[in-house]
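Section 5: illustrative case.
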Protein backbone atom coordinates (compact mmCIF):
# COMPACT_ATOMS: atom_id res chain seq x y z
CA UNK A 1 0.00 0.00 0.00
CA UNK A 2 1.20 3.52 -0.81
CA UNK A 3 2.29 5.24 2.44
CA UNK A 4 0.42 8.51 1.74
CA UNK A 5 -2.80 6.70 1.00
CA UNK A 6 -2.38 4.60 4.12
CA UNK A 7 -1.95 7.74 6.24
CA UNK A 8 -5.00 9.35 4.60
CA UNK A 9 -7.06 6.23 5.15
CA UNK A 10 -6.16 6.24 8.84
CA UNK A 11 -7.01 9.94 9.09
CA UNK A 12 -10.40 9.47 7.43
CA UNK A 13 -11.08 6.50 9.65
CA UNK A 14 -10.18 8.48 12.79
CA UNK A 15 -12.23 11.51 11.77
CA UNK A 16 -15.19 9.35 10.80
CA UNK A 17 -15.08 7.62 14.15
CA UNK A 18 -14.83 10.91 16.05
CA UNK A 19 -17.73 12.36 14.08
CA UNK A 20 -20.18 9.73 15.25
CA UNK A 21 -22.17 11.29 18.03
CA UNK A 22 -24.83 9.66 20.08
CA UNK A 23 -28.24 10.89 19.05
CA UNK A 24 -29.28 12.90 22.09
CA UNK A 25 -31.12 16.06 23.04
CA UNK A 26 -28.57 18.22 21.15
CA UNK A 27 -29.66 16.49 17.97
CA UNK A 28 -33.35 17.05 18.01
CA UNK A 29 -35.65 19.45 16.25
CA UNK A 30 -33.97 22.36 18.11
CA UNK A 31 -30.74 21.92 16.11
CA UNK A 32 -32.69 21.46 12.91
CA UNK A 33 -34.59 24.71 13.61
CA UNK A 34 -31.28 26.54 14.26
CA UNK A 35 -29.82 25.26 11.01
CA UNK A 36 -31.18 28.17 8.98
CA UNK A 37 -29.16 30.67 11.04
CA UNK A 38 -25.85 28.76 11.03
CA UNK A 39 -23.53 29.29 8.04
CA UNK A 40 -21.68 25.98 8.44
CA UNK A 41 -24.66 23.61 8.77
CA UNK A 42 -27.16 22.74 6.06
CA UNK A 43 -30.31 20.68 6.01
CA UNK A 44 -29.72 20.01 2.32
CA UNK A 45 -26.86 18.66 0.21
CA UNK A 46 -28.44 20.05 -2.96
CA UNK A 47 -25.91 21.85 -5.19
CA UNK A 48 -28.40 24.60 -6.07
CA UNK A 49 -29.35 25.53 -2.51
CA UNK A 50 -26.35 24.51 -0.40
CA UNK A 51 -25.21 27.60 1.57
CA UNK A 52 -21.55 27.13 0.63
CA UNK A 53 -22.09 25.80 -2.89
CA UNK A 54 -19.67 28.41 -4.27
CA UNK A 55 -16.87 26.60 -2.40
CA UNK A 56 -17.74 23.12 -3.74
CA UNK A 57 -15.78 22.05 -6.82
CA UNK A 58 -17.87 20.52 -9.64
CA UNK A 59 -16.17 17.11 -9.26
CA UNK A 60 -17.21 16.72 -5.61
CA UNK A 61 -20.30 14.49 -5.25
CA UNK A 62 -23.16 15.80 -3.09
CA UNK A 63 -23.84 14.52 -0.55
CA UNK A 64 -20.18 13.77 0.09
CA UNK A 65 -18.93 10.68 1.91
CA UNK A 66 -15.62 10.36 3.81
CA UNK A 67 -14.57 7.93 1.06
CA UNK A 68 -15.25 10.63 -1.57
CA UNK A 69 -13.01 12.99 0.41
CA UNK A 70 -10.24 10.40 0.57
CA UNK A 71 -10.48 9.69 -3.16
CA UNK A 72 -10.52 13.37 -4.15
CA UNK A 73 -7.78 14.42 -1.74
CA UNK A 74 -5.64 11.58 -3.02
CA UNK A 75 -6.20 12.70 -6.61
CA UNK A 76 -5.17 16.28 -5.99
CA UNK A 77 -2.06 15.11 -4.17
CA UNK A 78 -2.74 16.66 -0.77
CA UNK A 79 -3.58 13.41 0.98
CA UNK A 80 -5.49 15.47 3.53
CA UNK A 81 -9.25 15.19 3.86
CA UNK A 82 -9.54 18.77 5.07
CA UNK A 83 -8.99 20.21 1.60
CA UNK A 84 -12.21 18.87 0.06
CA UNK A 85 -15.33 21.02 0.54
CA UNK A 86 -18.60 19.17 0.05
CA UNK A 87 -21.64 18.30 2.12
CA UNK A 88 -20.89 15.56 4.63
CA UNK A 89 -23.72 14.13 6.66
CA UNK A 90 -23.17 14.69 10.37
CA UNK A 91 -23.52 18.42 10.97
CA UNK A 92 -24.54 20.14 14.19
CA UNK A 93 -23.48 17.13 16.28
CA UNK A 94 -26.19 15.10 14.56
CA UNK A 95 -25.29 11.91 12.75
CA UNK A 96 -28.20 12.21 10.31
CA UNK A 97 -30.15 14.90 8.51
CA UNK A 98 -27.71 17.83 8.69
CA UNK A 99 -24.62 18.40 6.56
CA UNK A 100 -21.23 20.02 7.23
CA UNK A 101 -18.75 21.42 4.70
CA UNK A 102 -15.63 19.37 5.43
CA UNK A 103 -14.58 16.19 7.13
CA UNK A 104 -13.01 18.16 9.98
CA UNK A 105 -13.21 21.64 11.45
CA UNK A 106 -12.18 23.38 14.65
CA UNK A 107 -15.88 23.88 15.36
CA UNK A 108 -16.14 20.11 15.55
CA UNK A 109 -12.82 18.89 16.96
CA UNK A 110 -10.15 20.71 18.97
CA UNK A 111 -6.81 20.78 17.19
CA UNK A 112 -8.28 20.77 13.68
CA UNK A 113 -8.09 23.88 11.48
CA UNK A 114 -11.27 25.75 10.56
CA UNK A 115 -13.05 24.46 7.46
CA UNK A 116 -13.33 26.79 4.44
CA UNK A 117 -16.81 27.97 5.45
CA UNK A 118 -15.81 28.80 9.04
CA UNK A 119 -12.63 30.53 7.78
CA UNK A 120 -14.78 32.70 5.53
CA UNK A 121 -17.17 33.56 8.39
CA UNK A 122 -14.23 34.37 10.66
CA UNK A 123 -12.75 36.66 8.01
CA UNK A 124 -16.12 38.41 7.48
CA UNK A 125 -16.42 38.93 11.23
CA UNK A 126 -12.99 40.54 11.55
CA UNK A 127 -13.50 42.61 8.39
CA UNK A 128 -16.65 44.11 9.99
CA UNK A 129 -14.72 44.94 13.16
CA UNK A 130 -12.04 46.70 11.15
CA UNK A 131 -14.52 49.12 9.53
ZN1 LIG B 1 -16.29 24.74 9.95
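Designed sequence:
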Amino acid sequence: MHPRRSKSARRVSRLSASSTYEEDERCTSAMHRRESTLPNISATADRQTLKWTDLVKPNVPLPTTPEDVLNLAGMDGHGNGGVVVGALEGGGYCTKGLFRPELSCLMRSDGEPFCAVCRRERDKFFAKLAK
